[in-house]
Amino acid sequence: MSRKMLIDGETNRTNEEGIHYDFDLFVIGAGSGGVRAARFSANYGAKVGICELPFHPISSEVIGGVGGTCVIRGCVPKKILVYGAAFGGELELQASLIC
């Protein structure tokens, strides 16, 4: 249903009459926190469901991706860029030693 809503903007509820969902925990968003909560709960015997936007390799606000904002386009990519930038001085030093 969520995929249909993303494509059409509305759903046809007539085919979903009588369907019953029973979860102990329903997680909205499969980011690092959502997946961890779901796994922890499932390990203790809870019946868990996760809702996430359809997968796409480039995550955005309207195109999903398991991993969430932090992993895909937030904290982790930022840390990689900051860590890589720390090598600039060392590369300049190495270049001056070679010539």
UniProtKB/TrEMBL annotation:
GO biological process, one term: glutathione metabolic process
GO cellular component term, pick one: mitochondrion
Alphabetical keyword list: Disulfide bond, FAD, Flavoprotein, Oxidoreductase, Redox-active center
Cofactor requirement: FAD
Key word Ion transport present: no
InterPro entries listed in its UniProt record: FAD/NAD-bd_sf, FAD/NAD-binding_dom, GSHR/TRXR-like, Pyr_OxRdtase_I_AS
Alphabetical list of SUPFAM superfamilies matching this protein: FAD/NAD(P)-binding domain (SSF51905)
FAD/NAD(P)-binding domain boundaries: 23-87
UniProt entry tagged with the keyword Thylakoid: no
Domain of life: Eukaryota
GO molecular function, one term: flavin adenine dinucleotide binding
Pfam family, one: Pyr_redox_2
Family according to the record: Belongs to the class-I pyridine nucleotide-disulfide oxidoreductase family.
Protein name as annotated: FAD/NAD(P)-binding domain-containing protein
Species: Punica granatum (Pomegranate)
